[in-house]
Automatic annotation (TrEMBL):
UniProt keyword list: Membrane, Transmembrane, Transmembrane helix
Protein name as it appears in the record: PQ loop repeat protein
Listed transmembrane segments: 6-26, 38-60, 66-88
Domain of life according to the entry: Bacteria
Length: 98
């Protein structure tokens, strides 16, 4: 196996693991009874923009739709965590105001 194939395999494996690892974070943010207060929105927004800029780089500089797809999925998961946290926060505020 050539070095290029090894690095592609490692990249793919870790990105699959990373995408799966988002699921518990999304679930935790969505189900948090305290309004997802432990979610650092600034961190997840920064991760989103880092992934989005990688999508742009992959498409514009590398002409690599495959790489762009991986990082689009990562960016979408970041948005899901942000959205789930914001919904949990809204539910928590509504519960406190009721």
């Amino acid at each position: 196996m050539r070095l290029e194939e090894i690095t592609l395999l490692v990249f793919t494996a870790f990105n699959v693991v990373r995408l799966v690892a988002y699921v518990p974070q999304i679930r935790k943010a969505a189900c948090d009874q305290n309004g997802a207060s432990a979610i650092a929105y600034s961190t997840w927004v920064m991760f989103f923009f880092a992934h989005a800029s990688t999508v742009a780089y992959a498409l514009v500089n590398q002409k690599d739709a495959s790489l762009a797809l991986w990082f689009t999925a990562n960016a979408a998961c970041c948005l899901a965590i942000i959205g789930a946290g914001l919904l949990a926060r809204r539910r928590s505020r509504a519960r406190l105001n009721a």
